[in-house]
Known about the structure:
Blueprint: E1 10-13, H1 19-22, H2 25-37, H3 39-48, H4 55-68, H5 71-83, E2 97-102, H6 110-119, E3 123-128, H7 137-155, E4 171-178, H8 181-188, H9 190-210, E5 214-218, E6 223-227, H10 230-246, E7 254-261, E8 264-266, E9 269-271, H11 273-284, E10 290-292, H12 294-299
Helix pairs in contact: 2-3, 2-5, 3-4, 8-9, 9-10
Amino acid sequence: MAHPDRVAGLILWASFVNGAQAYQATERTTLVDLAEGNWEFFLQTIAQGKGWLDPREVRAYVDILKQCSTQKDYLSFIKWSSESDITPLLPEVHTPALVLHPRAFSDVKVEEAMRLASMLPNARLVLLESERFLPTAELVEPALRAITEFIADVTGSPASEIGRSGPSAFRTILFTDLVGHTEMMQRLGDAKGRDVLREHERITREVLKANGGTEVKTMGDGFMASFGSVTKAVECAIALQRAFAEREGEPLNVRVGLNAGEPIEEDGDLFGATVILASRIAAKAEGGEILVADTVRAIM
Length: 300
């Protein structure tokens, strides 16, 4: 590594030492031919052909692939990766490294990950019980646990504090909005309308607390909350809609929007593109609906 002082640690996922050994020649040729011949069909094929994703996740993954790579870039990458051999470089990399690998992943054998970890002077190997390459539901929790422990060891920070704050913390943002709030206040009057709003606030806060959500702020007829887990955020959204649907009395038609990313935190509030998109998604929902960004769908 040319500048070890600039890197605290390496996290490697489903990586390999020698591309020619990791990829079978026939498979490599098939991938290249398909990508060259029909890029759109190629993206659909790799998204659903391995069985990594549920059908509802395929479209979201294809969208991510389109945003991450062009046809030209992919062809250059597959050519480079299939011909690369980093064996001579590995003994010189003394930076702490975490090698994560799905044990049953068929494209890159587990023996390749074991060889990679053994050749790095300061590496730890964590094998995950999965055949999937993508960090979907079954992989997220064990992978994050291993990454958190690794970062704690590298930085000397308590594991419990990692990922809880900071400008680059990955979070799921949830927005709620009470549909027809103004009309309800005009119809019921200030006193009765305010009683209904208090009930709405009570239910929302109770459900947020029960599902591990953090209230960021309330806007009178809606809430903004954040979650460290996409799954918890989605479960909270569902629980909210059930709670409002089961409540007797004045109907509370609430719409919910979710997005995931790395918002900017300042003085207890969250800002940035992740937050803006979550708000816009919520605004497009109908009362009683939950809308989520493709980012959330891909992680679930």
